[in-house]
Structures are given as structure tokens and as C-alpha cells.
Amino acid sequence: MFLTKKEEQMCDGEFGETIRKSMDILVALGDIYGASKLVDITSAQVSGVSYKTIGQAGLEYLEDLASEKFEYSGINASLNPPGTDLDNWESLGFPRDFSIKQNQIVDAYAKLGISKTCTCTPYLVGNVPRFRDHVSWSESSAVAYVNSVIGARTNREGGPAALAAAIVGKTPLYGFHLDNNRKANLIVNVSTELSGADWGALGYIVGKTVGGGVPYFKVKNTPNNNDLKTLGAALASSGSVALYHMENVTPEWDITDKKEVEDIMFVSDKDIQATREKLTTTNREADLICLGCPHASLEEIKQVANIVRGKKIKNKLWICTSVSVKATADRMGYTEIIEASGGNVVCDTCMVVAPIEDMGFEVIGVNSAKAANYVPSMCGLDVVYDDVEKLIHFE
Ligand code: F3S
């Protein structure tokens, strides 16, 4: 991979150890994937945050990296969800030792220049790249959204690579950064109208088929942004989709010559219903309804507030979101309505990266196919998959 004189000096440690270690990662990646050079990025999103997944070794690595002096690139970089609500962990019942360690991890990232936005939907809270910008994002649902809905360019980075890219302000030029690799290789004809949890079911079906390919959707009804984030999260969890197109909806929908695409699949209402049933793993009722995967938008919190207004919820209810979106929900009175019904708007964390398996829950109700896919494997708990209105039961 070609390096400029300054990049070579960065590799040689002339700009400090943190920069040298970051360049090591980026150059190794570029060499493995045949990148021609490094390209400047405008934004980063860094995963690998939960103490549940990176543990003590991860915390020590980050604190070590953050202890060195270096000049941060200055680009807008957001942190993915940690395993606790950073401010309200105690009142919400998150484990104490875990939450303290978790705060230390987030502090180390902040020292490295990564904002404590702590969300997988940074595009809702100020980290919004422009169309065609090169970026380095790592949380898989966020990658699918920023590539597909915004039309910025990123590979599906690992956490360390996105952190290195943020520190240096560059990423290797290969994969989805190049026009040719962004064309669709599977056409998906959907023959039924979709709503609510159907979008996640569609993503789950297609992700399993396309793997790391680029699907092109022809759908009967136009999704909103919340549907698109749900769809992308599901595609990225049952497969490893980083980019999808949707006819007349996403910004690069017309870059593919459809005549050149040989693979075509059809998805019917029967397929959607069968997948919805398959994602539910138990007949039992959920003891925790956990919404906001990917993190909830203000409209989604408003929708829940309207459902629960003036009623008492039978099961526990969390709506996971960023601290920024919650601040607006507080102002709008949505949080108060939800809390009066017995639910909580939980910041920063989510049902997959939080240690919910240690918090006394057994069955989790979700409206996200990504959460339905990961909660059994990552938390060892059962799942009920359904629309929000059907998940919440009242006294
Ligand atoms: Fe976000 Fe957690 Fe889902 S990180 S996409 S809410 S699994």
C-alpha cells in the first residue's frame, strides 16, 4: 500500500506510540485487503465498548493507549453502546462492579478522542456524514445505515480498526469505499406490504441468503427511517450485510444495472410470518420488554408513550436510546408518561451488550430481529418477537 512521507513517519513512531500502533493496524488491514492507499475520513463510529465483551484485558489495553500523548485527528467519532446506563445504573439495577468498570472503559475512549455519545444510532444525534464521504464505522447496524440510507462509504470495520482510523483520521481504500463494489448482486422481490416487526423479519430472511453481498429490494410500501434501521440491523446480524439498496428509496438505488444481476429471490407474506414465528423461542410471556435495537429514535419513544399513556404495564419495559434522544424525550414529556406506566427509558446500553442474564430476567420481548437473533446466543435467554403493541401487556 502506498504511504505518503508523513504516513511513513507516523508508522515509524515519530508522532508517538498511539499513532504508531494505530498506523500498524491500518497498514496491516490495507495490505491484507489490497488497498492502494489510505484515504481521509470525516467520521468514525467505534464498537468494542461493553465490559461484557472486551473485559479487563480490553479496559487495560485502552487505558494504556490513552496514557500516551498524541494529537487526535479531530474527526467526529462516536462510541457504541456500553453495557450499562452510565448515569443511572444504580437505580435501574445494573451490577455495581460491572458498571464501574464500564464507566472506566468509556472514560478511556473519551481520552482517546471518541465522544461519549454511546449509541448505535449516531446518525440521529449529530454524527451524520455527507453522501459519498469516506468514514470508518464498526457497529454492524450503523454500518448498514450509513452506507445504505446516507450513502457514505465504510467497510464493516472491527472496533480496533475504527478506533485506529479515528485517531489517525484515515482508513485503507478498499471494499465498499470503491464504486464498483457497491453494486447489488441479489434482487429481492417482496410481494406483500410490510409493517412493524415485518421489516426485521425481511432483513433476517435476506441476510441469511445474501451473506456479505449487496441486496437490492423491490418493496410494495415505502419504509420510514425507523423501518430502514430495523431492516439494516437484521440484514447485518443474520448475514454480514454492510450495504443494501432499495428501489426509489436509498440514494444509490440506481447504480446497478439490474440486467447484470443473476440472483433473484422472492419473499411472500408466508415467508415473513414463518420467520416471525421462528424468531420467538418460547411460549412463555416476556418478563422484560426491551425496545430500541437499534437505539430508539424520538418518534419510536413517542409511539411507546402513546401506547402506555395512563395504563400500568404488567411486565418490565425498557426503551434503549442515546442520552441525547432521551433528553428530548424528557422535554416532550414522553419519559414521564412511560415511567408513570412502570417503564423506563434506558440510556447508552441495550439488551444485547448489557448483562441482562445476571439481572434476573428469563424471557425478553423484542421487536428487533437483530435482538431476537443475539439475545439467545449472547445472553442465553428466551425471546418473544412481535410488534410493540402486541408485546406490551397491561394490568
Ligand atoms: Fe444497537 Fe445493541 Fe441492537 S448495539 S443494534 S441496540 S444489539
Task: Describe the protein in words.
- With about 400 residues, the chain is an alpha/beta fold.
- The chain has 3 domains: about 5-180, Aconitase, domain 3; about 185-275, no CATH class; about 280-390, 2-Layer Sandwich (Aconitase, domain 3).
- It has 15 helices and 14 strands.
- Strands 12-11-10-13-14 form a 5-stranded parallel β-sheet.
- Helix 3 (about 50-65) packs parallel to helix 5 (about 95-110).
- The longest helix has 17 residues, at about 15-35.
- The protein is globular, with a radius of gyration of 21 Å.
- It binds FE3-S4 cluster.
- The site of FE3-S4 cluster (F3S) has 16 residues, from helix 14.
In brief:
The chain has 395 residues and is of the alpha/beta class.
State the CATH superfamily name of the largest domain: Aconitase, domain 3
- Mean residue pLDDT: 97
User: What proportion of the residues form beta strands (DSSP E)?
Assistant: 5-15%
Give me the count of strands.
14
Q: Uncertain spans, ≥5 residues at pLDDT below 50? A: none
Q: Work out the helicity level.
A: 40-55%
From the helix content, strand content and strand pairing, which structural class follows?
alpha/beta
CATH topology of the largest domain: Aconitase, domain 3
Gyration radius (Cα, Å) is 21 Å
Q: What is bound: which ligands?
A: FE3-S4 cluster
Enumerate how many helices there are, as a single number.
Answer: 15
Largest sheet: 5 strands, parallel
Q: Return the domain count.
A: 3
For this structure, what is the CATH class of the largest domain?
Answer: Alpha Beta
Choose one word for the global shape. globular
